[in-house]
Amino acid sequence: xxxxxxxxxxxxxxxxxxxxxxxxxxxxxxxxxxxxxxxxxxxxxxxxxxxxxxxxxxxxxxxxxxxxxxxxxxxxxxxxxxxxxxxxxxxxxxxxxxxxxxxxxxxxxxxxxxxxxxxxxxxxxxxxxxxxxxxxxxxxxxxxxxxxxxxxxxxxxxxxxxxxxxxxxxxxxxxxxxxxxxxxxxxxxxxxxxxxxxxxxxxxxxxxxxxxxxxxxxx
Length: 219
Fold this sequence. Notes:
Shape: globular
CATH topology: Metallo-beta-lactamase, Chain A
Largest sheet: 6 strands, mixed
CATH superfamily: Ribonuclease Z/Hydroxyacylglutathione hydrolase-like
Helix content: 25-40%
Number of helices: 7
Oligomer: single chain
Order of helices and strands: EEEHEHHEHHEEEEEEHEEH
CATH class: Alpha Beta
């Protein structure tokens, strides 16, 4: 039987992005998902809980999800004495990951950095962490390389900016595609069971069942 994991949401940046810290209470091993910024706040929590971070996972390349990843990688690697890899998203988001300061400047933000992942992921990959297996699912439309991380055993998924409580991700970018996003949600997320909990990049957690029933974008 897999050990239950603990989860802490650390809101980061002026966008209120849900940086997620997932850890095993027994081993104190952890992963950090989408550290978009405010790295000192993230590090404070990790230090207070005495966590050993195995990896940093990115759902996509937007500044509020990836802008703190490089700094956090350096901080954690120095603290733990070994490289903490940045994993994800799909390689299609590489242009976004390499242009984060330019993205930030459009919003008058500073201190956010581009990041080069140690490993890109592809649809169908499986990431193993803390005794759990997370399926990688490619859900493009918000960005070309957006992925989600789904743990079938825990019935839980990090879905980034694909599906929200009562909404879906923005697609009003030059590279956005609303029809592609809706199609990807329908093929990659809605087939999951109703009781699967999803944690979006912004706002509260919800379930597949609740969104299947009440999300107006999926009617």
